[in-house]
Amino acid sequence: MIEDKNQQRTPLSTLGEFALIDHLTKNFEISHTSTVKGIGDDAAILDFGDKSIVVTTDLLVENVHFDLSYMPLKHLGYKAVVVNLSDVYAMNAEATQITVSIAVSNRFPLEAVEELYAGIETAAKIYGIDVVGGDTTSSTTGLLISVTAIGQVQKDEAVRRDTAKVGDLLVVTGDLGAAYMGLQVLEREKEVYKVNPNSQPDLEAYTYIIERQLKPEARKDIVKLLKDLDVKPTSMIDISDGLSSEILHLCKGSKVGCDLYEDKIPLDPTVITVCEEFNIDSTTVALNGGEDYELLFTVSQADFPKIKANPHLSIIGHLVEESAGVHLVTRANTKIELKAQGWKTFD
Ligand code: ADP
Ligand code: MG
């Protein structure tokens, strides 16, 4: 046991994820000129000659990040890779390699771990990346997966989250909220199954949103699209924790404010229908749902003609002075301040 000299005991839940990271890492110093950006973005940026390397890592823990009662192991393997690649693409980089580390308990037979790796292999093939290492160890409490992704980008082409400017347009790819509503449907079916294991759920109407939860994709295509359109975003971040949280990160990092327009937020029709069924406000879901793995970026107004009317891109707002704050402009034309959501994991 480590002797406890520190009598004070602060519950981690009083800080939340981001304050905790800040607190733990605030004294770390950068000593290499190759470290262009350390902690604080979707990925670190390391400069080597005319290339920048980006590095990002994520840890997925059973019953915190995934529930194996409805998450097939193959999908879990696929998702573990994809969520990391999303952070690489959010830097405007090309993903090239990953390492995969697992801690696994005796509860899992070989065949189960094979399934997990089938998903990892499929993602590696589809996204064109090499699996170059990892670590394997035992666990007493279930399954943990950690993936580290490495990518490359031409020097000075990496796009950070702290470089947006007042007046820039705020753009999001795809549509939002589907992964969260997919999770709600899966959770509901799990409860039904507990009561009646013989019930045969008809989930056909929910295919899109369940797929978005169980088999998300990272927007590799957008990095290419932006190149083809000759648009370099002024800042970029991926949407893992919900639109609201990511806008706040981007604005805080860039020292700007934002007006986000409720009527511009892209929603799939299924999300709207299922939100009605669950009696949840679809804007709240888009703002706070998370796990969309879409890209959120800003462009200068001069690039407007290049991105307008593109079916993959929605212009959802614009950046204002920091002192003006970060607001949602509702359909009724009232302004509501966007606030950081509490972090659930340490509750
Ligand atoms: P994302 O949601 O894009 O994956 P995170 O919110 O997980 O990013 O992390 C924010 C930043 O903090 C990243 O730069 C990440 O590398 C860094 N970070 C997170 N946890 C730790 C830790 N325990 N020690 C050092 N850096 C960390
Ligand atoms: Mg990210």
UniProtKB/TrEMBL annotation:
Task: Cite the PurM-like N-terminal domain residue spans from the record.
Answer: 40-153
Residues at which Mg(2+) 3 binds: 42, 87, 238
Residue sites binding Mg(2+) 4 per the record: 42, 56, 87
Top enzyme class of this protein?
transferase
- Residues that coordinate or bind Mg(2+) 2: 58, 87
Where is ATP bound in this sequence? 117, 134-135, 161, 240
Additional detail: Reaction mechanism of ThiL seems to utilize a direct, inline transfer of the gamma-phosphate of ATP to TMP rather than a phosphorylated enzyme intermediate.
For this protein, the record's HAMAP family field holds: TMP_kinase (MF_02128)
Q: What is this protein called?
A: Thiamine-monophosphate kinase
Q: Which organism is it from?
A: Algibacter miyuki
Q: What is the lineage of its organism?
A: Bacteria, Pseudomonadati, Bacteroidota, Flavobacteriia, Flavobacteriales
This protein's gene is called thiL
